[in-house]
């Protein structure tokens, strides 16, 4: 994808791995070029189920979804997270990411969002000695 080089992708995957080393939760990123007749939040919910994110032990998965050509994105968390974070948590995170995206800094916006989510979630879901990586850290490229 234009604007999302292999180096940028590597930086984002590294940010996911680093974030997950601090929390017991799982973070996934789905990248597509276009929405497919659904809103970004609906697409995120679709992939949340498709990628098995509701299967984490503590129900503490986070999914970032972005449609690069449509300039739309969404962030959703599983039930375990949403019971604990403030109501405006995801909107606040999205606003900061949007500032990066408007400057054409896709990777930096994604890295900021991933890092910020982990910084907040460590309060509720710190990494544990018995923590296992339940889901892949790679980027999932959807139906492009």
Automatic annotation (TrEMBL):
State what protein this is by name.
TPM domain-containing protein
Give me the segments passing through the membrane: none
Q: Name the lineage.
A: Bacteria, Pseudomonadati, Bacteroidota, Sphingobacteriia, Sphingobacteriales
Instruction: List the InterPro entries hit by this protein, alphabetically.
Output: TPM_dom
Name the Gene3D superfamilies for this protein.
3.10.310.50
Using the record for this protein, list the coiled-coil segments as residue ranges, or answer none: none
Would you say which domain of life the source belongs to?
Bacteria
Q: Name one Pfam family in it.
A: TPM_phosphatase
- What are the TPM domain coordinates in residue numbering? 4-118
């Amino acid at each position: 994808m234009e604007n999302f080089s292999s180096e940028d992708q590597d930086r984002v995957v590294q940010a996911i791995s680093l974030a997950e080393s601090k929390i017991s939760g799982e973070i996934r990123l789905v990248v597509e070029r276009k929405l497919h007749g659904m809103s970004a939040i609906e697409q995120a919910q679709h992939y949340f189920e498709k990628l098995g994110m509701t299967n984490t032990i503590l129900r503490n998965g986070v999914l970032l979804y972005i449609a690069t050509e449509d300039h739309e994105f969404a962030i959703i968390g599983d039930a375990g997270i949403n019971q604990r974070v403030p109501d405006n948590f995801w909107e606040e995170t999205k606003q900061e990411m949007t500032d990066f995206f408007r400057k054409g800094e896709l990777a930096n916006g994604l890295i900021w969002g991933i890092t910020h989510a982990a910084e907040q979630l460590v309060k509720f879901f710190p990494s544990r000695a018995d923590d296992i990586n339940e889901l892949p850290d790679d980027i999932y490229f959807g139906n492009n």
